[in-house]
C-alpha cells in the first residue's frame, strides 16, 4: 500500500533567525579582553563574528555552542 503525500509532507521548514551574542556579552562569557577575543578570531581559534560595514554585530548562539563543544577538555 502506497502512502499518500499530504500537504504537511510538502511543507518546508524555515530556520528562525538566531539571536546574536553581542561582543560585550561574549567577553563576559569567555572572561577575556576584547583584544584577546580578536586575536583568537584572527588565529582561527574562535569563529568569525557576523559583521556589517566593518563593525561587529556578534556571534550566533550556535557558533558559540559549537565552539564550546569542540573545545571541551
Key words describing this protein structure:
single chain; 73 residues; alpha+beta; elongated
- Series of H and E elements: HEHHEEH
* Strand tally: 3
Helix content: 40-55%
Spatial shape: elongated
Describe what is shown at a glance.
The chain has 73 residues and is α+β, with helices and mostly antiparallel strands. 44% of the residues lie in helices and 15% in strands. It has one domain (18-70).
Outline the structure in words.
The protein has helices spanning 7-10, 23-30, 34-43, 61-70; strands at 20-21, 50-52, 55-60. Helix content is 44%, strand content 15%. A three-stranded antiparallel beta sheet has the order 1-3-2. By secondary structure, the protein is α+β, with helices and mostly antiparallel strands. The longest helix is centred in the middle third of the chain and has 10 residues, at 34-43.
Give the topology, please.
Layout lengths: L6 H4 L9 E2 L1 H8 L3 H10 L6 E3 L2 E6 H10 L3
Antiparallel strand pairs: 1-3, 2-3
